[in-house]
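Hey, quick one: can you model this chain's 3D structure?
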Amino acid sequence: MINKTIDEILTEATLAGGATIPTTPGGEECDPIDMTHVGQFALTLSAVFHVNAVEGLSAHVRTSPTGETGDWDTIDYTSFTLPANAGATEQVTVPIWCDPLYAMAMIVNEGTRPATIIRLTRTYQEAEPT
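Sure thing. Here's the predicted structure for all 130 residues.
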């Protein structure tokens, strides 16, 4: 049996249109994701969209060799979108290649309407010891 762990890594009650959380890579709003002993990894983003929402959310994953403030890549390692569905709850899960040691995801509301109950969770499996 393969044991996988699920952790909520970011929760935001409301994200205004055009807003980003955390405001910078390594920001205090979200702890770095330690991938030093991870064999498989996925991120799940979910949100409730405003009844007049047109644009969705985007997740921008940045990496770091140390996980320390000021030592984060300035270019996305990868990114993905959660399309808006006006008035509905949407969710997307994306596998992430786990070669980097640390990661952080910034969530951007690409629209002008707020999104609510934003959750970012990780699912991972520890790497087998060699």
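One thing worth noting: The chain has no helices and nine strands.
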